[in-house]
Amino acid sequence: MKRLLSVLTIFSLILFTSCEDEALDLELQQLVNETNAAQNPTTGNPTPGNPTTGAFQVDIDGQTFVAETATASYIDGVVNITAFRNNNTEIVTITFLASSTGTYQLGISNPGAFFVNGAAYVMEAGANGFVSSLPGNMESQGEINLMTIDETNQTISGTFNFTAYREETAGNLEILEFTNGSFSNITYSGDLSDISDPDSTFFAKVEGAEFVEDAINAIEILSFSNTVAIVAVKNNGQSISVTVPNDIVPGDYTFGFPSGTDPVGLFNESDTESFLADTGTLTITVHDTATNRIEGTFNFTGTLLLDPSNAREITEGDFKVTYQ
């Protein structure tokens, strides 16, 4: 699943493609479907949890939804929490990237982000779902606070709120507010150790200040461009990425434009500001294709695609990662 999720988001890092309405909905649905399928490969549906092992509830436009069953998974750093009511026909589901306990934003349509966290609600069987991702939106549509992770008993607890949307007719959006959401002691499947590779490290400074990432991801993309992408991301969506040909050998390189044969550097500062490496150098010190280990140093000046006079200095870059 990590390969699928990473490819979806790294495409946007490399190509600067913004999400259109249908594409965004499909991406969110695919994230939910993949997580559900991982929990129950036979049916492709989320597996209802044991109602005695946890509690989940939320106010939907002031009416309290109390789950009859709830389940969760924690697979490759992606958390999915799904709650059921009315014989599993009414569903609330939240999917988000998490490296640890903390607060994570939901529903920002950010073409430069590493991962779009999202929530969805299905009112009844066969009904169109409400989703927290509003196409083109540059503000958070809610947040989830992952408060505790009990690795011994494999349970998670926290709180959440979000706004969800459904388009019934062209241009006519229905809106639901999800408030006072909470989940406690929900049993999760998966292995927490899969969240990050302890042997992977990343360091860089942006305008002289250390960029402190919340997650590091490295993946080889074969079917698209035969590249290796190294991405360091913060929970707020900021990210630094270095993308190189998958056959690169140790040596010194200069950064170039996406879709070429040169390495590509990118700094995403906000939902609307992506700084592409204009000048700068990359030194690959190790690339072992047998073990998928790649190490290097870098620095670059990134300029805003639509405003080259707006620039950011990325310095003291250093990565040591094993890609998948």
Keywords:
324 residues, mainly beta, eleven-stranded mixed beta sheet
Layout: helices, strands, pairs:
Blueprint: H1 2-15, H2 21-39, E1 55-60, E2 63-66, E3 69-75, E4 78-85, E5 90-97, E6 102-105, E7 118-122, E8 130-131, E9 142-150, E10 155-169, E11 172-189, E12 201-206, E13 209-210, E14 215-221, E15 227-233, E16 239-245, E17 251-254, E18 264-268, E19 274-288, E20 293-304, E21 307-322
Parallel strand pairs: 3-11
Antiparallel strand pairs: 1-2, 1-11, 3-4, 4-5, 5-7, 6-9, 7-8, 9-10, 10-11, 12-13, 12-21, 14-15, 15-16, 16-18, 17-19, 18-19, 19-20, 20-21
Task: Please explain how this structure is put together.
With 324 residues, the protein is mainly β. The chain has 2 helices and 21 strands. The protein has 2 domains: 2-192, no CATH class; 201-322, no CATH class. The chain has helices at residues 2-15, 21-39, and strands at residues 55-60, 63-66, 69-75, 78-85, 90-97, 102-105, 118-122, 130-131, 142-150, 155-169, 172-189, 201-206, 209-210, 215-221, 227-233, 239-245, 251-254, 264-268, 274-288, 293-304, 307-322. The strands form 2 sheets. Strands 1, 2, 3, 4, 5, 6, 7, 8, 9, 10 and 11 form an 11-stranded mixed β-sheet that branches. Strands 12, 13, 14, 15, 16, 17, 18, 19, 20 and 21 form a 10-stranded antiparallel β-sheet that branches. The longest helix is centred in the N-terminal third of the chain and has 19 residues, at 21-39. The chain is elongated.
